[in-house]
Amino acid sequence: MTITRRVFLKGGAMAIVGTAAIPSFLSRAAFAADTASQGRKRLVVIFQRGAADGLNIVVPYAESSYYSMRPTIAIPRQNVIDLDGFFGLHPSMASFKPLWDQGHLAIVHAAGSPDTTRSHFDAQDYMESGTPGVKATEDGWLNRALRAGTHVDHDSSFRAVALGSRLPRILSGSSPAVAIDNVNNFGVGGNNKAAQPLANTFEAMYESSVDSILHGTGSETFDAVKMLKAANPGKYNPAPGANYPNGGLGQALKQVAQLIKADLGVEVAFTDVGCWDHHVNEGSVQGQIAQRLQELSQSMSAFWTDLGDLAESTVVVTMSEFGRTARENGNRGTDHGHANVMFVMGGPVHGGRVYGRWPGLAPEQLNEGRDLALTTDFRTVMGEAVYRHLGAKDLNSVFPGFNNNPKAFLNLLA
């Protein structure tokens, strides 16, 4: 069942507050909130910081060069979760297989930024600004997508949310966005400044906001969010079967789900997960990468389950600044590479397929003789998400300087 603001307040806040009076605007807004939640579309972006090893995430197990270049860290064929006879998932990502089989999970391989930098800082900056190779860009592409969109909830205080203590580069810009360090205390920040504790600034933050779903004033929005806080977010119970891991990503996505189900007008959300820079002892079936991938897949799978019917209008996309070298190094790890893999999950997704042109891993097919070559620009994937899902038709303003041709989309989304 879809959890609307009306159901949340009835089953959550009122059960705890007890004698608290329901603000008058809730009764006249309940129907509008229910209707809007059904039609609202959401995009969630997850950044894997540190340059994830796409070749050990979605394994080209049918390609012999993969095994010859990775004698100690390759995923053995018998352990790969087969997808299509050529590619397979790392065995730690078993929770993704049902989503794949149901057609809600798609994969784009050999994808990423065309810039050739091997600097984490520069590459992350380029992927968040959406202008690879251009350092002068002041805002982030996800913020620009908000301005280019046609969604009705532009006035929601929670239209754009980042889970973290600071507003990330990708959401910086003129369109309002908030950083929430923890839903339990509603620490918020903006304009790339450190998040401030809620403390006594709660009313000040919301006094001028207008929630278009509630058709209310700033004070009414404050009342609604105060009710959410009174409901003790720390006691939020995910849907049955939504088993979030205890790591940072699992808890971040749990809070995103909570905000979405509370019907606060979330349209875009961003979070990240680090520790993908495996130069030493990366591991194979077990080890560092296995632990990271288990957290990633279980967190996303739990999020999908937790959203229930709302998952049908939600899209989740992953990205990482670049991939790793095709060959393992002398420390049983991998070094900074080029192309990578992206996951696209959601109700509108045409899943159960690996998209993109596979360039091959033969020596002559590698980028600079060492990396998986790039065949799909990440802006093609993200462009399709914001164009078809969020309704941001002016892609030239979202990704300036890029050939934003909808005919080049991979047709990932309905």
List its salient traits.
single chain; 414 residues; alpha/beta; Alkaline Phosphatase, subunit A; 10-stranded mixed sheet; 3-stranded antiparallel sheet; 30% helix; 13% strand; disordered N terminus
In short:
With 414 residues, the protein is an alpha/beta fold.
For the record, the CATH architecture stands as 3-Layer(aba) Sandwich
Question: What is the number of independent domains?
Answer: 1
Tell me the overall shape: globular
Q: Tally the helices.
A: 12
The major pleated sheet works out as: 10 strands, mixed
Total beta strands:
13
- Order of secondary-structure elements: HHEEHEEHEHHEEEHHHEHEEEEHH
The average pLDDT score comes to 83
Question: Could you explain the architecture of this structure?
Answer:
The chain is an alpha/beta fold and 414 residues long. It has one domain: Alkaline Phosphatase, subunit A. It has twelve helices and 13 strands. Strands 1, 5, 6, 7, 8, 9, 10, 11, 12 and 13 form a ten-stranded mixed sheet that branches. A three-stranded antiparallel sheet has the order 2-4-3, with no helix packed on it. The model is unreliable at 1-36 and 187-221 (pLDDT under 50).
What layout of secondary structure does this protein have?
Blueprint: H1 5-17, H2 24-39, E1 42-48, E2 58-59, H3 64-68, E3 81-82, E4 88-89, H4 97-101, E5 105-112, H5 120-129, H6 141-148, E6 160-163, E7 178-180, E8 188-189, H7 202-206, H8 218-230, H9 248-261, E9 268-273, H10 288-307, E10 314-320, E11 340-346, E12 354-355, E13 376-377, H11 378-389, H12 395-398
Parallel strand pairs: 1-9, 1-10, 5-12, 5-13, 6-7, 6-9
Antiparallel strand pairs: 2-4, 3-4, 5-11, 7-8, 10-11
Helix pairs in contact: 1-8, 9-10
